[in-house]
Amino acid sequence: MTHGEIAVLLKERGIRATPQRIAVYQYLDEHRVHAQADTIYETVVEQYPSFSRTTIYNSIRALEEAGLIRPV
């Protein structure tokens, strides 16, 4: 999915489409495996060095609460 498509999806689910949430969702969409938060962080921080681990955890929680992902 593109950033724009993800932004629309997030807005439809009632959550703000922040760059962090878009990056986390895009990672999960592209890597259809069980990913740990640290793995996601290590990948997205290369493109977005200002992201923190806390930001990734918060983004995961928001996506889960919106029903877009589920924990395994």
Note down, in words, how this protein is organized.
The chain is mainly alpha-helical and 72 residues long. The protein has helices at 3-12, 19-30, 37-47, 53-65. It starts with a helix and ends in a 7-residue tail after the last helix.
Our Rg estimate from Cα atoms comes to 11 Å
DSSP, total strands: 0
Principal-axis shape? globular
In what range is the share of β-strand residues?
under 5%
Mean pLDDT, to the nearest integer, reads 92
Q: Write the element-wise H/E pattern from the N-terminal end onward.
A: HHHH
How helix-rich are the residues, as a percent range? 55-70%
Taking the sheet with the most strands, its summary is: none
Ends apart, CA distance between termini: 22 Å
Count of individual helical segments: 4
Alpha-beta classification = mainly alpha
The stretches of 5 or more residues where confidence is low (pLDDT under 50) are none
Ordered list of secondary-structure elements with their pairings:
Blueprint: H1 3-12, H2 19-30, H3 37-47, H4 53-65
Summarize the structure.
This protein is mostly helical and 72 residues long. It has 4 helices and no strands.
Properties at a glance:
72 residues; mainly alpha; 4 helices; 64% helix
